[in-house]
Amino acid sequence: MSAIGGRRSAPTGGGLFDLPPELAIDTDVARRVIVEFIRGQLRQAGFERAVVGLSGGIDSALVAYLVAEAIGPERLLCVMLPYRTSALSSRTDAETVVERLGCTGELIEISSMVDAYFGRADSGLVGAVGPDGLGASALRRGNAMARIRMTVLYDRSVTWGGLVIGTSNKTESLIGYTTIFGDAASALNPIGDLYKSQVRQVAAAVGVPDAIIRKAPSADLWPGQTDEAEAGFSYPELDRLLFWLVDRRRSPEELEAKGFAPDRIKWTLKAVAGSEFKRQVAPIAKLGPRTAGLDYLYPRRRPGSART
Amino acid sequence: MQPLRIALAQIAPRLGLLDENLASHHALIAQARSGGAGLVVFPELGLTGYLLQDLAAEVAMRLDDPRLVELAAATAGDGPEAVSAIVSFVEESADHRLFIAVALLEDGRVRHVQRKLFLPTYGLFDERRFFAAGDLLRATPSRLGVGVGLSVCEDFWHLGVPQLLALDGAQLLVNVSSSPGRDLAALNEVGLGTATSWRTLLRTYAQLTTSFVVFVNRVGVDESISFWGGSEVIGPSGEAVFSAPLYDEGLYFADVDLGDVRRERIALPLLRDERLELAVRELGRIVSERAGQADDSTAEPGSPPGLDVAPR
Q1: What is the ipTM of this complex?
Q2: CA of B84, closest CA in chain A: separation in Å?
């Protein structure tokens, strides 16, 4: 790896995206660490294969590229899991990734599973949850879709014989823009410490198609939905705020002095604090002498834990 | 000329798998010897892996453990067949404290043991929860013909450690590490904040102690943490003699002339000019002031003994 080392000038998004200078990272080092992380985790767990749910967005595309680099495309299963209202462009973008990588791609429509639960107003179908399901909010439906996708990925994990690789980035994890036990569920997460801007930077470095890097991030729950419209501000701005708040330990007053708008600071602090529970395992009521996570502390992948 | 070939074992130990790691140490000692090395250095906890948590007690060895004795025996040999090895493991004392230890093995025996003095317990580190801190810092003579000073990772983030080792007679300072790489940035020297900090420390210590500094850092992954390697040998003038690549596992060889220490110390007699009695006197004063046994010269007027702020 001769590429590592040597001083270089600050990278930019090269016109493809907006990269705040303080978030710029050495993509050669990032790529090397992540690829070794994926290999090490799989080896410790006794697996050689992996499963990634491909949405057509940049996060899962980047993860697929990195996993393919780590273990070879022939060991990677990418599963596309559209609902009937998902954008067609999401699917074609995901198919482009599968094609470019030369990995195995699989399409599993989740519409019938989601509709079997909530029902379907336009055809008069009442779902398992009863008539109430017909008017389920976008939040309920979105969470259910994320968890059904997780269910499929973990089932395919068994048949493919590979671990489910997580695709949540640091930005969405910190503000809680994830579904617990849905898209936030995984066996390991290679990009969970990269802000969205850094995901874009690494994605550009590993060759994720420009169209995927350029398009507006979206949960794709309804036509035209975008993350940035929902949050009310842009990823570069949110990433910068989170970086100074979390990584550089700045107080709200110091953030304001740096030029961040007070309402944005307030919104972010609330989002971060309010989603703390999503980033941690559930607490166990302490009763016995030794309790998992408190005073029974072992590496997740300890000797003897590997599958084979 | 006092030539010495140093082998840097920049390895990825298997977490908690003592037997596997012992086997790889035996193999690498043999490889270092056949490569003409007089010294082979392994990283911190190279025999056990780093992120042990409750596994620490399960992989601990007493100094009389047959497995350690056998590893030490592998260093025996006549003339060029002899090799010194610096290895690191979890040491259990007779009173059942667990230490992170580094040992110099040579002439077929355990020549010297240094227990890690500073156990980082902040940020991503939790060492004090699982380990006891060493109380003793000593340089050791060696068959290499120079004094050797051993230290473990965080020990080198405390200025006194390299200085005390050099003053105690070490001309070859060895730091074995399991340094987690973090703070990825675009503008650091090698793209990694941790590496940039370490590289600065190593060069500074070598220059200020006019000694060789050997740094061996592991690679591989324990859980979330990736170790960055980048092992180095720095000469007594502060210039790098050898720098291993970041993240690449391997046994790397570096040739040095230990005679450089004499040349540097004659030209730049920093150690000669050290004022030990001054340091002892001032340290004694500071300890007394902190303990409230003497007036604190820098405290606010009216502060109670041992406190540096006067309550209002």
Answers
A1: 0.88
A2: 30
- Amino acid identity for residue B282 in this structure: E
**A299 contacts on B by Cβ (under 8 Å):** 15-16, 51-53, 55, 222-223
The domain that holds B163 is classified in CATH as 3.60.110.10
CA nearest neighbour of B51 among B124, B103, B117: B124
Can you tell me the distance from the alpha carbon of B249 to that of B255, in angstroms, rounded to the nearest whole number? 19
For residue A120, the cross-strand partners are: A125
Name the residue among B266, B270, B219 with its Cα closest to residue B245: B219
In a domain, B61, yes or no: yes
Interface test with B, best of A29, A31, A297 (most B CBs within 10 A): A29
Distant-in-sequence, close-in-space partners of A38: CB < 8 Å, separation ≥ 6: A50, A66, A67, A70, A71, A165, A188, A190
User: Residue A78: helix, strand or coil by DSSP?
Assistant: strand
Query: Domain total for chain B?
Result: 1
Domain span holding position B29: 3-279
3-state secondary structure chain B: CCEEEEEEEECCCCCCCHHHHHHHHHHHHHHHHHCCCCEEECCCCCCCCCCCHHHHHHHCECCCCHHHHHHHHCCCCCHHHCCEEEEEEEEECCCCCEEEEEEEEECCEEEEEEECCCCCCCCCCCHHHHCCCCCCCCEECCCCCCEEEEEEHHHHHCCHHHHHHHHCCEEEEEEEECCECCCECCCCCCCEHHHHHHHHHHHHHHHHHCCEEEEEECEEEECCEEEEECCEEECCCCCEEEECCECCCEEEEEEEECHHHHHHHHHCCCCCCCCHHHHHHHHHHHHHHHCCCCCCCCCCCCCCCCCCCCCC
pLDDT digits (tens, 9 = 90+) for A259-302: 999 999 999 999 999 999 999 999 999 999 999 999 999 998 88
| Beta pairing partners, B100 | B90
Count the domains in chain A.
1
Q: What is the pLDDT of residues A47-96, one digit of tens each?
A: 999 999 999 999 999 999 999 999 999 999 999 999 999 999 999 999 99
Q: Distance between CA atoms of A29 and A34, rounded to whole angstroms?
A: 9
Containing structural domain, residue A204: 21-279
Read off the pLDDT of each residue in B6-18 and give the average, rounded to a whole number.
97
Two tokens, residue A231: 């949050």
Query: In chain A, positions 21-60, which contact chain B (CB-CB < 8 Å)?
Result: 24-26, 28-30, 32-33, 36-37, 39-41, 44
- Could you give the C-alpha distances from B252 to A51, A101, B106, B269, in angstroms and in order? 37, 35, 20, 32
CA distance B89 to B102: 7
| CA–CA gap between residue A198 and residue B264 (Å, rounded) | 46
> Is there a domain that residue A221 lies in?
yes
Q: Going by C-beta distance under 8 Å and a sequence separation of 6 or more, which residues neighbour residue B71?
A: B22, B25, B26, B29, B85, B87, B105
Residue B119 in any domain: the answer is: yes
Q: What is the pLDDT of residue A228?
A: 87
Indicate whether B287 belongs to any domain. Answer: no
Please tell me what DSSP assigns to residue A23.
Answer: G
Q: What gap in Å lies between CA A57 and CA A60, rounded to an integer?
A: 6
CATH of the domain at A87: 3.40.50.620
How many residues in chain B? 312
CB-count exposure of residue B217 (10 Å: 0-12, 13-18, 19+): buried
